[in-house]
Amino acid sequence: MKNKGIVVFIVILVAIILLIVIRDFRSTKPGNQAENQYEYNVDEFKLVDPNLIIYKETKNFKLSMKHPSAIAFSNRLIYAAGDSLLQIIETNGKLHSEILLKKHPACLAVSGQTIFIGFNNSVATYQNSGGLIKDWGLIEKKSVLTSICAVENEVFIADAGNRKVYRYSPEGQKKGEFEGKHEEEALHGFIVPSPYFDLAVNLEGELWVANPGNHSLENYTYDGTLRGFWENSSVKTDGFSGCCNPAHFSFLPGGSFVTSEKGLVRIKIYKPSGEFLGVVAPPDKFEEDGEAPDVAADESGNIYALDFDKKMIRLFEPK
User: Which terminus of the chain, N or C, has fewer Cβ atoms within 10 Å?
Assistant: First the structure.
């Protein structure tokens, strides 16, 4: 009798275990899972109040490139790089000229009649007519160049691989470098979790650098001393969210910032002081989980966005 009781107990125990396994299996099938109350949902932040949208898309130009990488606006022309190619495009979308490059470009800048092209870890300069001026060669072996800016006698290069900003002459002579740590209150330095690290000089000659991991834009002297900064960490429309934003930025003629974000892909405008002004293009204008568009602006305040996912240049004009 004792052995019989043990057998009955084991049979009952096995039956209970089987019931638990079957129930768990059914509950984890698609459509049967309980809602995760801890899941962070950003869908509500994709919606933007129409009153905040102060620009409208007026035209776009489809590119022939498979892998566009950078955009600039100068000399009343649009410069688009990608695929080992630089295309110079008129504002009506007509191709003006093309320049073949030695390899895939990462970033570009135009100053006067000189075009500066940053590759993964090197820089070269070209004439507007297409001729190579000079190959600067390797910047640093581990460099991942993400932005270049040229103004008068200065060229600044952002290196996401080494989290540094380099200062060069237009002829390719290195003048210095800095890591964003020249002031005691800036001990964090440049926080660059991914290859999004932008810089630009405004019409007042001020050098600004995005610190994407800190959701900030920082103003430096040319030798790398921090002068000031503003930051806005928020998933809401007026802030920057995710691991690394703003991904790209540029300036309007009056000094306001045009910013572009990854994650919640959107383009926005901020006053020179950092105060939010409005939205150029909300998330529903872009592919979900797409890349942050590179941005440039002309002298009239129109914004040219390089949409990497749709492989086109999109023009946004003030409403």
Answer: N
CA distances from 177 to 136, 165, 276 (A): 16, 5, 31
Domain membership flag for residue 35: no
Q: How many domains does the chain have?
A: 2
Amino acid letter, 228: G
H or E stretch including 225?
A: none
Strand duo 77-82 + 95-100: pairing: unpaired
**DSSP SS3 for 71:** strand
- How is residue 308 annotated by DSSP? T
- Whether residue 167 lies inside any domain: the answer is yes
Query: Would 5 be classed as within a structural domain?
Result: yes
Q: How far is residue 153's CA from residue 198's CA, in Å, rounded to a whole number? A: 20
Contacts of 11 (CB under 8 A, 6+ apart): none
CA pair distance 55, 76, nearest whole angstrom: 20
What is the SS3 assignment for 176?
strand
Structural domain boundaries, residue 23: 1-30
Instruction: Tell me, yes or no, whether 193 lies in a domain.
Output: yes
150, 114 Cβ separation under 8 angstroms: yes
CA distance 78 to 217: 25
Contact (Cβ atoms closer than 8 angstroms) between residue 56 and residue 317: yes
Do 77 and 22 share a structural domain?
Answer: no
Spell out the residues 6+ positions from residue 176 whose beta carbon is closer than 8 angstroms to its own.
Answer: 166, 167, 223, 224
For 50-94, the pLDDT digits (tens) are 999 999 999 999 999 999 999 999 999 999 999 999 999 999 999
* CATH number of the domain where residue 312 is located: 2.120.10.30
Neighbours of 310 (CB within 10 A): 16
Nearest Cα to Cα of residue 240 among 208, 273, 207, 263? 263
Q: Enter the DSSP assignment of 14.
A: H
